[in-house]
Amino acid sequence: MFSRHAPLYGCFLGAFGITFSYGTSVVLTGVTAKIISDSDPRISKLLLKEISAENIRQNLKDYASHPHLAGTPADLQQAEQLKLTWLEQGLDRVDILGYDVLLSYPKDGDPNIISLVKECVYSIRIYEYYDVGRWCDGI
To answer: Domain range spanning residue 21?
Structure first.
C-alpha cells in the first residue's frame, strides 16, 4: 500500500511545492491545497459508508478478548490474524515486520509490585478553565 520510499516522496513534494528566489520563499499557489485535498469525494463517501459501529464493536471484542503482551507468541498470533483479515478484506499485500526492542518482562517468581505508600500523593482539578482569547489575540 505505502512504499518504503514514502518519506523520500514527501521530501520531493515539499521541495518542488516551494521555490526559493534570492533567499525568500515563494509558495506555488494551489500546490499544497491540491496535495492535501481529497482526490475524489466519492472515495471518501464510499469509505465512510463501509464504517460500521457493529464491526468496530466486534473487532474490539475479538482483539481484546485475550492478552497479547508485546513480543510474545500471542502477540504474533494476533498480528497474523489481523494480516489474514486485511487480506480477506482486499488489501493486495500485508507484511509483518520484525523489530528488536528492549522489553522488560516481569519474572514468574518475582512479579513487579506497585504499592501506594501515601494516601494522596498528588491531586489535580478535574477541569481547568482558561481564557481562550488571552492566548489567541495575536492570531
So the answer is: 1-37
